[in-house]
Amino acid sequence: xxxxxxxxxELAMKLATVLLTLAGILWGVWTFTQSxxxxxxxLARSSLIEFERQLWTRQIETYAQIAxxxxxxxxxxxxxxxxxxAIQDFLTLYWGAMVLVEDATVExxxxxxxxxxxxxxxxxSTSDRVKRRALNLLEACRTSSRAAWQRIQALxxxxxx
Length: 161
Known about the structure:
By secondary structure, this protein is an all-alpha fold. It has helices at about 1-80, 85-95, 95-100, 105-120, 125-155.
């Protein structure tokens, strides 16, 4: 009887050893997988944040160019000087770099400012209306850049994806 118990005990120990080893391996695989998944998510978030920062930097640079261009137009219209070169600079940005960085509100204000310039050149508008459109456009640019920065901060804090 002792020999039978010993064999059962020995078999149970072998089985327990195999089961514990298997459980340890499964636990290790699960832990490794979780760790890899967390690292992948962190890398993806870091890449997204870096992309958003580069886009935001480009946006700020382009909005500054628009501000300078619009300022020249308004100043020249105010003094009666020829604004053709400044308007050409604006149109280059209007059809070029702004398309890459503007949001819907800035796009709408760009269109409105351009239309106001056309109206002013056709004598259907005044320089005061152009100034008002310029202020609206620049305020939209400021609001857009602030919103983009807040999105970057939220991403960095893990509040958005």
